[in-house]
Amino acid sequence: MWPVTFIKEGGITIIKEYLLKIDNVSKVFRIGNVLSSTRITAVDNINLSISSEKPVILSIVGESGSGKTTLARMILRLLEPTSGRIYLQGRDLFSLRDSESLVEFKRTVQPIFQNPYETFNPLKPVSQYLYDTVSNLRITEDQKDADEIISETLASVNLDLPTVKGKFPSQFSGGELQRISIARALIPKPRLIVADEPVSMLDASLRMNIINLFDALKNTYNISFIYITHDLSTAYYISDFVAIMYRGCIVEYGPSDLILMNPMHPYTKLLISSVAETERKWNENIKLSGIESQEFLMTGCKFALRCEEKEEICNRERPPEILLADGRMVSCFKYNKSNNVESLFKKDN
Q1: What is the 3-state secondary structure (H, E, C) of the chain?
Q2: Where is pLDDT greater, at 118 or 243?
Q3: What is the largest CA-CA distance in the chain?
Q4: Tell me, what's the pLDDT at 275?
Q5: 340: number of CA atoms within 13 Å, CB side?
Q6: What is the pTM of this model?
Q7: pLDDT single digits (tens) 82-111
Q8: How many other C-beta atoms are found inside a 10 Å radius of the C-beta of residue 41?
Q9: Is residue 184 domain-resident?
Q10: What is the mean pLDDT of the chain?
Q11: Contact predicate 159/176, CB 8 Å
């Protein structure tokens, strides 16, 4: 398990009280037909957690095919893991079956999706989504109370009910629609918001408005965020912690300034250097050809085919999860014998 860690005087504290705990989670897809198919492990034995002690923003960063969106969809119960467990406040997400438990889950965890133009039906007033959320999550049956709740959440994103009520998506900009999406997510006062590439469809001038809003909401409403992104600059700006994903695996995790300013894993180094060299945009479609498909099928380190620092063992065995003395976790054999290692990670008893 890779828990949220932070540095105190005298060493590393490993947090034991979890809001979210992802325990050895994998997701396998079969691509192709009955006669000829390929098993793709989109998420490969992920361990991650978020503390319940204080709100944080955890960015999950990766290129096309890294598995970050698949992981987000499992946290939202939109996909079921092939193996492993996801716990929310100590309860297995996929053991929740009765109506009350599922409603409580939706009150606790809310999504914000990538494209605000696809979030809303063009033939339905956007305000109806806000009222439907109040009704479906059984927050109140009183119309006046519903108006007050919706007005409060819209005010938190610098909008107001008279401006929004009765209007259709085409009457708003992309930035306004995304703020309305955030307001909808805030209605049940969730503990966790999963935001999947929430600014990638917005103009650069609007992105920082949304990113700054997340930071303000974290502190005002005591909400933790999982921010799914390929944008290292916004991840560095907004995050408390960063997890770097590659071909379904987390290769490095820790406080954002450590990971992004002083990367240790060879892939993180390459990722950051590539952004410095070019402003290329990553294609978010998995390409099952050439080296990409080989990496998905590897039993050792998924980055070994590209890594200039690999050892022979990297082709055969999966790297261990190693806790370094500076508070980060890195999955790489080169640190297995390092004097900088605080301890090898062990599961909770």
Answers
A1: CCCCEEEECCEEEECCCEEEEEEEEEEEEEEECCCCEEEEEEEEEEEEEEECCCCCEEEEECCCCCCHHHHHHHHCCCCCCCEEEEEECCEEHHHCCCHHHHHHHHHHEEEECCCHHHHCCCCCCHHHHHHHHHHHCCCCCCHHHHHHHHHHHHHHCCCCHHHHCCCCHHHCCHHHHHHHHHHHHHCCCCCEEEEECCCCCCCHHHHHHHHHHHHHHHHHHCCEEEEEECCHHHHHHHCCEEEEEECCEEEEEEEHHHHHHCCCCHHHHHHHHHHHHCCCCCCCCCCCCHHHHHHHHCCCCCCCCCCCCCCHHHHCCCCCEEEECCCCEEECHHHCCCCCEEEECCCCC
A2: 243
A3: 67
A4: 67
A5: 10
A6: 0.85
A7: 999 999 998 999 998 899 999 999 999 999
A8: 20
A9: yes
A10: 84
A11: yes
Residue 283 CB neighbours (<10 A): 10
Does 240 reside within a domain? no
Task: Note down the domain range covering 157.
Answer: 119-190
Residue 124 lies in a domain: yes
Cα separation, 270 vs 137, in Å, equals 44
pLDDT tens-digit map of 6-37: 444 444 555 557 899 999 999 999 877 767 77
* Contacts with 134 (C-beta within 8 Å, 6 or more apart), sequence order: 140, 146, 149, 150, 187
Contact in structure between 137 and 157 (CB atoms under 8 Å):
no
Total of domains in the chain:
1
Tell the residue number behind the tokens 């992981």, with chain if given. Answer: 71
**Residues 6 or more apart in contact with residue 164 via CB below 8 angstroms:** 126, 127, 130, 154, 180
AA letter at 49? S
136 found inside a domain: yes
For the CA atoms of 179, 219, 195, 134, the dihedral, rounded to the nearest 10 degrees, stands at -60
State both tokens at 134.
Answer: 């109040």
Residues ≥6 apart with Cβ < 8 Å to 280:
274
Place of tokens 């890594």: 307
pLDDT of residue 293: 62
The answer to whether 348 and 16 have CB atoms below 8 angstroms apart is: yes
CB 220 within 8 A of CB 156: yes
pLDDT tens by residue, 261-306:
999 999 999 888 876 544 444 333 334 445 566 777 777 888 888 8
